[in-house]
Design goal:
The complex is a heterodimer of chains A (123) and B (143). Chain A is mainly α. Chain A is built from 4 helices and no strands. Chain A is elongated, with a radius of gyration of 20 Å. The termini of chain A are far apart. By secondary structure, chain B is mainly alpha-helical.
């Protein structure tokens, strides 16, 4: 195996791991009990899946055709920045809307903060 | 709900980074349109997407202060640019909207192919930004 074949193998492996990550994320979204754990599965592992797949595609085109796609790098940066923020905003909106947590939840630390804020509003 | 101030720090910090990325990519799409996917339409939509993201994170009043542009005026400006590129062909005694291109050498970029179709694309770009921003802002500010 020369260097080119090794890098191509790494690219294929990255894309395969990315696909497996996406499937794990999908299974997590189906099986977790409430919106907060689902967002935990939906944002973290899907972000990693997209990053791995894009890195694999970048490596593939770089080795196969000598084409260094700046757009793929930009896409990696973009998804890495935006997907966790989107998850944060969705769960925050869900909490503000009063979505119930799963029955197995033991502690809600944000509850006191939100109740204090309700009192501040009255003043 | 009067003095309730939501804590938007994470969204605003990300937006100030992402908006630059989006605007840069929009300009890239606008200039790439001749030889690869892109063009005035996608570039215009991307630009209005970036401005909308700023609007969502910072509120429309702040964005109005930041970008003092009357987006309704962009529509006639874009249409005038498009018509002007069409009328320009009359100067050289050729049919309406005839386009041409040439090769020019610049200090940094080297030899660049410049086409007059690019100017028409600028017209499309301004019109698309104006139309999309006018539609969405007039819906959003409707009380």
């Amino acid at each position: 195996m020369n260097v080119k074949e090794i890098i191509e193998f790494i690219a294929a492996l990255l894309m395969l791991i990315g696909a497996i990550m996406a499937m794990i994320s999908a299974i997590g979204i189906i099986r977790f009990p409430d919106v907060y754990t689902r967002s935990h599965a939906g944002t973290k592992s899907s972000t990693l899946a997209v990053l791995l797949t894009l890195t694999g595609a970048f490596l593939h085109f770089a080795v196969e055709q000598g084409f260094y796609s700046v757009r793929l790098l930009l896409g990696i940066v973009f998804v890495f920045l935006t997907a966790p923020v989107a998850g944060h905003l969705i769960t925050r909106a869900a909490y503000s809307a009063g979505v119930k947590m799963a029955d197995s939840t033991v502690e809600d630390e944000l509850k006191d903060v939100f109740e204090n804020r309700e009192e501040d509003k009255g003043k | 709900m009067d003095n309730y101030k939501p804590n938007n720090m994470i969204l605003q910090t990300t937006t100030s980074l992402i908006a630059f990325l989006l605007l840069g990519f929009a300009v890239y799409l606008l200039f790439a349109g001749h030889n690869s996917p892109g063009g005035g339409f996608v570039g215009g939509l991307m630009t209005s997407g970036a401005i909308l993201l700023l609007n969502m994170a910072y509120g429309s009043l702040t964005v109005k202060k930041m970008l003092p542009i009357n987006f309704t005026m962009l529509i006639p400006i874009g249409l005038l640019i498009a018509i002007a590129t069409g009328l320009g062909s009359f100067i050289f005694n050729v049919p309406f909207l005839s386009h041409t291109f040439g090769y020019f050498t610049f200090p940094i970029f080297g030899e660049v192919e410049l086409a007059t179709a690019m100017l028409f694309d600028f017209g499309v770009y301004f019109t698309v930004v104006g139309v999309v921003m006018t539609i969405i802002l007039s819906i959003a500010e409707d009380q």
